[in-house]
Amino acid sequence: MKKALLFSLLLTITFSFTPSVEAGPSPRLYAESPVNKGEYVEIVYDINFPGFVQLCLFNEEKEQIWIKGRVTDRVGKDYFRISTNPLKAGARYTFILKYKGKDYPGSFYM
User: Fold this and answer.
1) What are the residues whose beta carbons fall under 8 Å from the beta carbon of 60, sequence distance 6 or more?
2) Which of 1, 75, 80, 98 shows the smallest number of beta carbons within 10 Å?
3) How far apart are CA 61 and CA 94, in angstroms?
4) pLDDT tens, 3-35?
5) pTM, 2 dp
6) Strands 40-47, 51-58: parallel, antiparallel or unpaired by DSSP?
7) 6 SS3 class
């Protein structure tokens, strides 16, 4: 009986002093609407944690035609620039921004 009471008391003390882990903000990426600047299309995004961001670009046939990634040690706005030379006028292109294990899709017309 004393052993069970002692074990119960020890278990209560252990759980009482276990530090609680508070959840902080989740990683997130906000992408602005792509802007055609003539020689390139600019895709601006905003992140709240440093890390790797990857851009995959697809044509109308859903074939991946471009991929680029960058590691940034800062938070806030950054961008990818895609040359317009190989892109067809009037075509719709889709892209996926990948950040912290999540996909952020978007698209633009040339």
Assistant:
1) 91, 92, 93
2) 1
3) 10
4) 554 444 444 444 445 555 567 789 999 999 999
5) 0.75
6) unpaired
7) helix
